[in-house]
Amino acid sequence: MQVWMNGSFRDLDAASIPVTDRGFLLGDGFFETMRAHEGKIAWLDAHMERLDFHAEQIEFPLDLLPATKDVAEIVATLFEQVRRKDAVVRLTVSRGSGERGLLPPADPDPTILITVSPFEPVDPGVGLKLFTSQKVRRNANSVAGGIKSINYLDNIAAKQEAHSYRGDDAIILSADGNVAETTAANIFGIKGDTLWTPDEDTGILCGLARGFVLGWAEETGREVDFEPKTPEMLKELDAVFTANALQGLRIVDKVDGLVIGVPAMTFFAELAQMVETSLCEGIVV
């Protein structure tokens, strides 16, 4: 397998970073995870715009980031080794090496890595079992929480917690104890013809799939409810599902051991197919 790193293609075993790299030492960096279908990245422009946003939040120079067309060409080349229709692309940016201490170098020499790995889409109707994390909370004022920071310790801890209960993922609550998101996806609910999802002020990372769903709701005139909900309140919904730009939409079967809703009686399947089609066709969100 090959990767692209700092301007060149390299064998995976030959790619390395210096021991002074701030991403390795301090988690000083960010990333984007993207879906590629037949060599083309879905929603690429939107992903690259969000990469710029991550950079701006930590005062990383935008002119050091790769251009969108270059990323597309790199991924098309790396995709040839996947031998599947779908792949997961990760573009990782570290601020690079610097002197000891917290302050970053004035003129960073970043480490930029692009990897492409096989990915098998999952049927959106295959349900998830979620458990509420008791260890982790979202902080609406956290810089790291508002971007895809390469410091993922909160998400790792919550995922481990859910795994200990034999769950698929964890629900992470806001600071005031309401549902925020999972470790890797936004959460939605359906009640009649109304969509529900946590508001941005809960400290969530607003994903591209979330934007797609909300855009669809606006176009179709569907009401969206942003009122806070505790995990117990989710059982009052007709269906609960997660959304991210890699797996699309996934229905939730259980929350903390309780069966949630009857998704077959809702518009979930239709919406999930629309998202999957968009991811495969690369429609701009």
Task: Please summarize what this structure is.
This protein is an alpha+beta fold. The protein has six helices and 15 strands. The protein has two domains: 2-118, D-amino Acid Aminotransferase, Chain A, domain 1 (2-Layer Sandwich), CATH 3.30.470.10; 128-280, D-amino Acid Aminotransferase, Chain A, domain 2.
Characterize the structure shown.
The protein is of the alpha+beta class. It folds into two domains: 2-118, Aminotransferase class 4, branched-chain amino acid transferase, N-terminal domain (D-amino Acid Aminotransferase, Chain A, domain 1), CATH 3.30.470; 128-280, Alpha-Beta Barrel (D-amino Acid Aminotransferase, Chain A, domain 2). The protein contains six helices and 15 strands. The strands form two sheets. Strands 7, 8, 9, 10, 11, 12, 13, 14 and 15 form a nine-stranded mixed sheet that branches. Strands 2-1-6-5-3-4 form a six-stranded antiparallel sheet. A hairpin with a 4-residue loop joins strand 8 and strand 9 (179-182). The longest helix has 14 residues, at 44-57. It is globular and about 55 Å long. The mean pLDDT is 95. It comes from Thalassospira profundimaris. InterPro entries: Aminotrans_IV (IPR001544), Aminotrans_IV_CS (IPR018300), Aminotransferase-like (IPR036038), BCAT-like_C (IPR043132), BCAT-like_N (IPR043131), Class-IV_PLP-Dep_Aminotrnsfr (IPR050571). It is an enzyme of class 2 (transferase). One of its GO terms (biological process) is branched-chain amino acid biosynthetic process. This is Probable branched-chain-amino-acid aminotransferase.
